[in-house]
């Protein structure tokens, strides 16, 4: 069996607007291993959602997948390139919601306000598992209990509006898990929730993932969420992956200046009242991406003539991580020097 449930290779997705072709995803390559959580992280607009929507072929006009592969490797041997398959191919319907499920930031996008919770959840089992009404009711009530919904028998007949945001997101997770997907794509699943509820929902997702052995592609802009939830991380900037590897290695020792900047701006790393450093400048538009490394105009380590010219740097491997930075090999030393400069001199 392939160790990866999903392999994305050279994925390119463009939006064809009146102003021109905007490459929202530009040659992205990563793999989601079986039984692992991979987080795709980056600032707003870097292409995380477009990447995840592409997997289920949910990109709408004027957007289109223009290149690359999205290879799904089923545990039962089913193989499919989701980037190439026809929209009408019945295998695509089988994959959506059954083998690959998706949960969104706002639970109400997935739930119908006019149907009961039990009715909506049972539908998943009628559709994908062809279960009887009685069997489905039992399975749904058990799953509601598993995701921490109190009094699941009573909740079965209630409507989504009768529940809090955190409870609704648990319902959506229950709905996704009912079909025992091999891969769960969670697009900012906790962003709309209060901080205390966020952490409960994340640990619920993590424990369900461990219990079922499914894989998760977690989309988030929050490195604190990554540290808490994921095994692997891929950092995206302006439609490209700039650094990827294990969470342990990358959070402890980020090498790409962008990852370094994202981590440095996390509140947990700084003392009370201390001003948080931020990455200078802002993300350029997709129609005027700079030549060379897309991050160079905001990078403190950019070198004229090296980082601002030609094609973006190619991916290279350092230890177990992959990084796209022309100065990757020197970064450990450069970051160490920078840290020393920021430390107050000893008297
Ligand atoms: N329908 C569309 N038409 C034109 N451009 C689009 C469209 N949808 C997305 N884009 C562009 O694609 C780029 C990537 O968007 P995407 O939603 O994937 O970013 P993201 O990293 O998920 O950000 P966020 O966290 O804000 O959702 C953005 O520059 C966005 O403006």
UniProtKB/TrEMBL annotation:
Family from the record: Belongs to the ABC transporter superfamily.
Keywords: ATP-binding, Cell membrane, Membrane, Nucleotide-binding, Transport
Source organism of the structure: Victivallis lenta
Membrane topology: Peripheral membrane protein
MF annotations from Gene Ontology: ATP binding; ATP hydrolysis activity
Location within or outside the cell: Cell inner membrane
CDD domains listed in its UniProt record: ABC_NikE_OppD_transporters
Protein name stated in the entry: ABC transporter ATP-binding protein
GO BP terms: peptide transport
PANTHER family found in the cross-reference section: DIPEPTIDE TRANSPORT ATP-BINDING PROTEIN DPPD, OLIGOPEPTIDE TRANSPORT ATP-BINDING PROTEIN APPD
Keyword Nucleotide-binding: yes
Segments forming domain ABC transporter: 6-263
GO CC term (a single one): plasma membrane
InterPro entries referenced in this protein's UniProt entry, alphabetically: AAA+_ATPase, ABC_Ni/Peptide_Import, ABC_transporter-like_ATP-bd, ABC_transporter-like_CS, Oligopep_ABC_C, P-loop_NTPase
């Amino acid at each position: 069996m392939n160790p990866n449930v999903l392999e994305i290779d050279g994925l390119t997705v463009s939006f064809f607007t009146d102003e021109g072709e905007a490459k929202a995803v530009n040659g992205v390559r990563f793999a989601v291993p079986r039984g692992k959580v991979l987080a795709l992280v980056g600032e707003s607009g870097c292409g995380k959602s477009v990447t995840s929507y592409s997997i289920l072929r949910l990109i709408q006009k004027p957007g289109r997948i223009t290149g690359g592969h999205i290879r799904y490797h089923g545990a039962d041997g089913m193989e499919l390139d989701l980037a190439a398959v026809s929209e009408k191919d019945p295998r695509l319907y089988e994959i959506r919601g059954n083998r690959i499920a998706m949960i969104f930031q706002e639970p109400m996008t997935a739930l119908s306000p006019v149907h009961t919770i039990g009715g909506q959840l049972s539908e998943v089992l009628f559709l994908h598992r062809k279960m009887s009404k009685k069997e489905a009711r039992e399975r749904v009530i058990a799953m509601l209990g598993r995701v921490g919904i109190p009094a699941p028998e009573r909740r079965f007949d209630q409507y989504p509006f009768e529940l809090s945001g955190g409870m609704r997101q648990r319902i959506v997770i229950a709905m996704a898990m009912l079909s025992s997907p091999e891969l769960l794509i969670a697009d900012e699943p906790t962003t709309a929730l209060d901080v205390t509820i966020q952490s409960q929902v994340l640990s619920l997702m993590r424990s369900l993932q461990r219990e079922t052995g499914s894989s998760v592609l977690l989309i988030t802009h929050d490195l604190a969420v990554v540290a808490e939830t994921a095994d692997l991380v891929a950092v995206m900037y302006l439609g490209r992956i700039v650094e990827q590897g294990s969470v342990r290695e990358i959070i402890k020792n980020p090498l790409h200046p962008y990852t370094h900047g994202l981590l440095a701006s996390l509140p947990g790393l700084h003392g009370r009242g201390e001003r948080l450093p931020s990455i200078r400048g802002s993300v350029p538009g997709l129609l005027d991406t700079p030549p060379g490394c897309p991050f160079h105009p905001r990078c403190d380590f950019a070198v004229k003539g090296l980082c601002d010219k030609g094609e973006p740097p190619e991916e290279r491997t350092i230890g177990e991580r992959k990084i796209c930075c022309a100065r990757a090999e020197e970064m450990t030393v450069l970051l160490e020097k920078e840290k020393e400069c920021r430390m107050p001199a000893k008297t």
